[in-house]
Design a protein that fits this description.
This protein is of the alpha+beta class and 102 residues long. The chain contains 3 helices and 4 strands, in the order βαββααβ. The protein has a 4-stranded antiparallel sheet. It starts with a strand and ends in a 5-residue tail after the last strand.
Length: 102
């Protein structure tokens, strides 16, 4: 059973450009670390302080291995530090989803 991590970010609406830069950096880091990046989604119209990220894994063990690899990936560490220094993410929620087979 595959799982998709649905990440809901509450972002500083005045730092959307920085969040977009943060999200674009993950485009190479996530696949290299073992995740299947579905995408990052930014505010376009309407609510201006919520963004989303979706990443799939074959199972929860694969997700845990991915998280361990991120903790030692120099580009991943730099991106986490960038987000923290810029204070662009105010809150982050993760939900683990499975696809409903019809």
């Amino acid at each position: 059973m595959s799982v998709t991590v649905f990440i809901r970010y509450q972002i500083d609406p005045f730092k959307r450009v920085q969040f977009e830069e943060y999200a674009k950096r993950w485009l190479t880091i996530i696949p290299r670390s073992g995740g299947e990046l579905i995408g990052y989604f930014m505010p376009h119209e309407g609510t201006n302080n919520v963004a989303f990220g979706l990443i799939s894994f074959s199972n929860l063990a694969a997700y845990e291995a991915y998280r361990a690899r991120l903790r030692v990936d120099l580009d991943g560490i730099a991106n986490f530090n960038f987000a923290e220094a810029e204070k662009l993410i105010l809150a982050e929620d993760r939900t683990f989803l499975r696809k409903v087979v019809v």
